[in-house]
From TrEMBL:
Protein keywords: Transferase
Chloroplast found in the keyword field: no
Keyword Transferase in record: yes
Gene3D superfamilies cross-referenced by the UniProt entry: Crotonobetainyl-coa:carnitine coa-transferase, domain 1 (3.40.50.10540), formyl-coa transferase, domain 3 (3.30.1540.10)
Protein name listed in UniProt: Crotonobetainyl-CoA:carnitine CoA-transferase CaiB
Domain of life: Bacteria
Amino acid sequence: MDRGALDGLLIADFSRILAGPYATMLLADLGAEVIKVESPGGDDTRTWVPPERDGVSTYYLGINRNKRSIALDFADPDDLRLARRLAARADIMIENFKPGGLRRFGLDYKTVSQDNPRLIYASISGFGSGAGASLPGYDLLVQAASGLMSLTGDADGPPYRAGISVFDVMTGMHAAIGILAALNHRHETGAGQHVEVNLLSSALSALVNHTSAYVSGGVVPHRMGNAHPSLFPYEPLPTADKDLIVIAGNDGQFRKLCHELGLAHLLSDERFSSNEARTRNREVLRPLLVERLRQRPADEWFKQLSAAGIPCGPINHVDGGVALAEELGLRPVVDVQDLPMIRNPITFSATRTRHDLPPPALDEHGAELRAWLEESTP
C-alpha cells in the first residue's frame, strides 16, 4: 500500500477559503500532487483566528495538508506566465473565483483548455454562473437562502445557522466527486471537461427529505427543534441527569425499546403501532417514554439500550466526539510532522491514504516550484 489511488495526478489549486481547499485536501490525501496557488496576501483563512496553533489559524491548518504553496501575483507578467504554465501542465485545475473572474488573466476554462485539452477544470461558485454569477458565495448566505436556517432552531424561536459551514464542506465533496467522475470520462475518451458546482445547488440537494417534501409533496417544512418530521422517537430525551439521543427507526427497534423500558403494554396501543402512528401521536408517546427514562441516569440507559441493539447515544462536545472515535478504534487523529490533524475518513484495501505534509506556509515552496515551472515544457 505504498501508492495512493490518485498518485501521478497534478492538481493546480487556485481556490481559497473552504470548499475548494477541502476538496483538494481530500484528493491530496488520496495521492494527488496539489500545488496551492495563493495571492501574495495568502489564503484568507490564514488570518481567521482565534483559535490558532503556534500563530497559525487552526481553520487554515484543518483543510490544507499535503499541499505545496506558491504565491503568484497575477498583476505581475512573470507570475501570470507561471500560473498559465502550471495550468497547462495540470491534470486538474480547481478555482472558486467569481464566475468569469479568471477570464481577464487567460486562466478561464475556454482559454486554458485550448493548450491543455485533457484538463479537468472545476469551478466552485455560490449561486452558479448564470443570473447568480455576481452574488458572493458565503456559506451563511446559502444557509439562509436555501431554507436550512428556517429548519434549524426551536419551533417558536429564531432561525439558526448550523454550527459548521456545512454547505461549503458539502460543495467541496461534490466538487471532488465531479472531478473523479470527469477523470473516469477522460480515461475512456482522452478528453477533459469543465465541472461546475455551486453552494445553493449543493444545499438543495443536501436538504434531501426537506426539499423532497416541498417539490414532491407540496409541503414547506418548518423548524421543529430537535424533533424529526417523519420519525419518532428520533431526538434527545431527558433522563435522570442529562439528555440522551434515543432512536426507533423502525417497528422492531420500537418493540425493543418498549421491552427495555418496561413499557411493553404500549405495543398493543394502536396509536403507536407503526412509525406513522407514533409520529402523529408523538405528543402522547413522548411523556410516557420520558417518565420511564427519568428514573435512571443517561449512562446507565446508554449501556442497557445499546446492548439491546437500540440506537442511542450521548450529546458530546467536540472533545467527546474525538474521544469516542478513539475508544472505538477509529484512530481519528494523525500526526503530520508533529501537527495533530483529523485523519482522512476514507480507507482502502489496496491503496494508501497519506498524511505526509503539514499545511504549507505562504510561498513555502515558491522557489522550487518557480524553478520547476521555468524548466518544464507544457
